[in-house]
């Protein structure tokens, strides 16, 4: 689910957040090939040998007779063949091939740091829009603003492109520069930005002014997401917050173990976080350990079309265990669990090795988590962040963000 551009695309209009890498829209579980994983042609099944022979025949035709011999690139052809094979599986946007460079970016994104210019992107209609520049980033310091429409990178127009394609054009080595062209109020503006290492906060929070409600935003399930969320809730409680909005909007997911740990903050020990279904249709209930402190705190969860994988696991767990009201829009619908298999050249395959269901047995792949209270964004709405809340009255915040207002209205009393 990034050159901090660091955000990702949206299916059917839903926003995909990326954090510097082409985003982990996923509930990912570590995996690897073991000794003996490679198969020689002699050990392949007959149908696989026939497929390889057909590919070799097609490759010979292209190599011998294609008019532009300079365009032949064995590495690109091999990777293209792998990508095509994975595309046939139907797990679009989840099961996928990563080049060695993309794999490094993926790993960096899970660590919470990355090299980029420091913006969050989302799709709005046909436009790729900056939803927020990251505080202290090159983009923010240069004057890039929320709502800017990305129209060009390094002088090349990008209208109509997927976010992932724009990300690949923006990313690059630390210290290099990229020219970003945006449209603001009908006027194009050009920013010459230096790529830097961005330490993007995974969790931020602020109290809604004049209330005992804290708005806690979790932007991804990176390596330390659960620990950072625990600290944020502790800080909010120490500052007088007694009720909480957990905002998972545009959170593309990340590590599966972090999702289970986060769900455990709010659920009684032994509660089911999700149900894992393997290729043989075997089912395993995955339970949380639970911990004291937040199991009784009034809680509402905010989601939208950009909430994916681990975000959906947490939202489904809290909904089905009657722990929290889920407010917003139907989520993305990522229903597979990924394992990563490294290949010999440093590339890897992120492969769906299991499906997951909500505790009540709902299969959400391509259908998503249905909120208890559906609230589409109103015309002109902007998602209010905790940093915004520090400078807005409650009325101003709710005027900007109808979903946050609805979450507040659904908040149970103490």
TrEMBL record:
One of its GO terms (molecular function) is serine-type peptidase activity. Residues 111-171 form the PDZ domain. Keywords: Hydrolase, Protease, Serine protease. GO terms for cellular component: outer membrane-bounded periplasmic space. It comes from the Bacteria. InterPro entries: ClpP/crotonase-like_dom_sf, PDZ, PDZ_6, PDZ_sf, Peptidase_S41A, Tail-specific_protease. GO terms for biological process: proteolysis; signal transduction. NCBIfam families: prc (TIGR00225). Belongs to the peptidase S41A family. This is PDZ domain-containing protein.
């Amino acid at each position: 689910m990034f050159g901090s551009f660091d955000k990702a695309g949206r299916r059917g209009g839903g926003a995909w957040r990326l954090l510097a890498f082409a985003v982990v829209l996923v509930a990912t579980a570590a995996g690897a090939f073991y000794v003996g994983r490679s198969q020689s042609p002699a050990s392949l099944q007959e149908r696989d040998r026939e497929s390889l022979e057909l590919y070799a025949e097609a490759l010979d035709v292209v190599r011998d007779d294609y008019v532009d011999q300079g365009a032949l690139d064995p590495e690109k052809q091999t990777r293209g063949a792998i990508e095509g094979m994975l595309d046939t599986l139907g797990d679009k946007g989840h099961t996928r091939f990563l080049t060695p460079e993309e794999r490094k970016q993926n790993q960096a994104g899970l660590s919470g740091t990355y090299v980029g210019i420091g913006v969050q992107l989302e799709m709005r209609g046909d436009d790729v829009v900056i939803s927020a520049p990251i505080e202290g980033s090159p983009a923010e310091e240069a004057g890039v603003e929320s709502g800017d429409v990305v129209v060009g990178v390094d002088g090349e127009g990008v209208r109509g492109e997927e976010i992932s394609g724009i990300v690949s054009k923006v990313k690059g080595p630390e210290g290099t520069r990229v020219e970003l062209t945006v449209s603001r109020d009908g006027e194009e503006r050009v920013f010459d930005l230096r790529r830097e290492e961005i330490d993007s906060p995974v969790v931020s929070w602020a109290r809604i002014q004049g209330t005992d409600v804290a708005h806690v935003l979790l932007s991804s399930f990176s390596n330390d997401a659960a620990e950072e969320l625990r600290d944020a809730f502790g800080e909010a409680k120490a500052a007088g917050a007694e009720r909480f909005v957990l905002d998972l909007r545009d959170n593309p997911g990340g590590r599966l173990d972090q999702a289970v740990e986060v769900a455990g903050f709010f659920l009684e020990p032994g509660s089911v976080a999700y149900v894992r279904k393997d290729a043989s249709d075997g089912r395993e209930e995955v339970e949380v350990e639970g911990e004291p402190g937040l199991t009784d705190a009034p809680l509402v969860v905010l989601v939208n079309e950009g909430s994916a994988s681990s975000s959906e696991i947490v939202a489904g767990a809290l909904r089905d265990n009657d722990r929290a009201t889920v407010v917003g829009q139907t989520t993305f619908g990522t229903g597979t669990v990924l394992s990563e298999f490294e290949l010999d050249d440093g590339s890897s395959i992120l492969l769906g090795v299991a499906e997951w269901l909500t505790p009540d047995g709902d299969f959400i792949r391509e259908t998503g988590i249905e909120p208890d209270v559906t609230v589409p964004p109103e015309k002109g709405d902007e998602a209010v962040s905790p940093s915004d809340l520090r400078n807005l009255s409650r009325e101003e915040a709710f005027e900007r963000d109808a979903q946050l207002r609805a979450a507040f209205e659904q908040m149970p009393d103490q």
